Structures are given as C-alpha cells and as structure tokens.
Amino acid sequence: MDNAPAHPDVETLRAENITCIFMPPNTTAILQPMDQGGIESMKRRYIKQLLSKLRFEGDDDEEEAACSIVQFWKALTLKDCVYMINEAWESVLEHSLKRSWLKLMPYLENVDQSNDSSSVTVTKLNRCLRYPFNRCPRATIKRTFETNSRLWKCEEDGVSS
C-alpha cells in the first residue's frame, strides 16, 4: 500500500490471513504503472472532451464570453462528467495500457512503444484552451483559477483537497 492519506493504517487492516505492508516512498510510478500510462491518457482525453464542450461560438463581447464560461461550469453535472470519463477510458487503446506495464514487467518489451497517434498531447490541450479563454478578460480567468485553486492541485498520490 502506498502512503496516500485515504488509506487506513496497518493496524486497522491487520487480519490472520492478510499482511499489509507499505511500499517504499517514491515507488508509486514503478509499482503502480497505470498511474503513468493508462490513467494519464484517460485524463488527457477527458480534459479534451471537457474543453470541447466548453467551446462556444459567436460571443464577441468579452463580458458575454466570460458569462458563457461561468454558465457552462454551473450547468455541468456530475452525470455529464461521469459519462465523459467513461468515454475517455473507453477510448484509451489497449497497446497504450500494455506500454504502461513495461517498467514493472520488462518482458513486455516487444509491445509497440511508438506514440499513440490519436493521443491527446499537451499542445492539443493548449490549443483547445486558447479559443474560449482568449475571449475572456484576464482578470476573470485569474479569479476563476485562484478561487478554484484547491480543485486544480494534484499530487503524485492523487488529488488533494
């Protein structure tokens, strides 16, 4: 078990036929390869879907554009997010998942390690972000990210609150 704060202590998990041990620090990426490959790919695909939904047409007025973004976030439901996460996970290719396991299982070396041509890159995400946010006043964007900064903070062991 890693040292994520959500995990109970070893004493709580003690049983006759179960032994619980902590993994050494800083080994999560090696011992939990899905964090590095499959889940990262799924997150990028989810963000791309989210930003695609955020795109809007026609608002030339910066104030109207900012209002549209606020309305989008208010209208977005948990159900919408769950469906987008499912779609993102379903679109992760099998060979991408296999590549995730190479550090832990090197005998899988013959798996194609080339880049997934359909993968979502940071550059593509930046392009998606440019359109809606270049039409908003910078102060509005800054205020939104500052207000929700705790929602954006991620750590190796998961999302912190």
UniProtKB/TrEMBL annotation:
Domain DDE-1: 1-101
PANTHER family documented for this protein: PROTEIN PDC2, TRANSPOSON
GO molecular-function term, one example from the UniProt record: DNA binding
Membrane-crossing segments per the record: none
Organism: Araneus ventricosus
Any one GO cellular component localisation term in the record: nucleus
Domain of life from the UniProt record: Eukaryota
Protein name according to UniProt: Jerky-like
Gene name per UniProt: JRKL_85
Alphabetical list of Pfam families matching this protein: DDE_1 (PF03184)
